[in-house]
Amino acid sequence: MKNYTSIHDIDNIQSWIEEAKALKANPLKHIELGKHKTLGLLFFNSSLRTRLSTQKAALNLGMDPIVMNVSGDAWGIEFGDGTVMNGNTAEHIKEAAAVVSQYCDIIAVRAFPTLTDKEKDESEQVLKSFVKYASVPIVNMESATGHPLQGLTDAITISEQTQKTKPKVVLSWAPHIKALPHAVANSFIQSMRKMDVEFVITHPEGYELNPEIIGDTPVNYNQEEAMKDADFVYVKNWSSYNDYGKILNTDPNWMITNKKLGAAKFMHCLPVRRNVIVEDAVLDGENSLVIEQANNRTYAAQLVLKKLLEGIK
Ligand code: CP
């Protein structure tokens, strides 16, 4: 594996899950692998979990992580080819990526979508420019259209938490006051489609996701029906994909409650708005997996970094 930019970089999800579980059981086993290797983490957007768990993963492998908030702290980066740079950008990605590659053995990048320009977001200009102009492997820490570290984490968590050979997993939209990206939902769908699960998506009409990502996954506009007999309910808000970036619905009846959840386990990538996406009783109850999910972010990142380090040794 040259880079980790998408769930599609996972060749065999079951073997990756088993490897991640082994890392979790013995996190420091490969502490020599990353010795004298540097991980650069570049954040164009905010983060709590990704920022800390990816550094923790690097430290567990003996790597030295260095972190930069690109937006605000670095020079404004130009991504256009042939641009006359007489505006707000001071440095071109061609130089920026080449320079950072001299300081780092692996570069991890977080760059969210605009949610106003679908074509630009789908081109993944920031992530793909780093892949193109850096001379070291690139890790996607959430891009315009995907969050593959989260998607891998969620697959690990479901595998750990189920006793069934084919559990029922539901991805449910829930309301939010802000327009949010599609990245987490996209990567969750991609990871569930690689798993041996019964998978259903539920959302209000108008919130259909990219059909190329959904494929033949069943979509049910009736949340109660979709959630019937679920083992895991993964909840996430996203803005409209077809009416790009718009909020079409804030119906509080889509909020997840204990009554709706029944015996199912509750999952969310965090951060989550209490009593908007999900009621307190769910998050504070014993069926919530959100803290364990966040714990597993370390081992998903550690597995990805280990595979990349093995490729560059
Ligand atoms: N789930 C997740 O990516 O969290 P952060 O945005 O805090 O990194």
Q: What do you see in this structure?
A:
The protein has 2 domains: 7-146 and 296-311, Rossmann fold (3-Layer(aba) Sandwich); 149-293, Rossmann fold. Helix content is 38%, strand content 14%. It has 13 helices and 11 strands. It has helices spanning 13-25, 49-60, 70-73, 93-103, 118-122, 125-133, 148-161, 183-192, 211-214, 223-227, 258-261, 280-283, 290-312, and strands spanning 38-43, 64-69, 77-78, 91-92, 106-110, 138-140, 168-173, 198-202, 219-220, 232-236, 265-267. The strands form 3 sheets. The protein has a 5-stranded parallel beta sheet. It has a 4-stranded parallel beta sheet with strand order 2-1-5-6, with helices on both faces. Helix 9 links the parallel strand 8 and strand 9. Bound molecules: phosphoric acid mono(formamide)ester (CP).
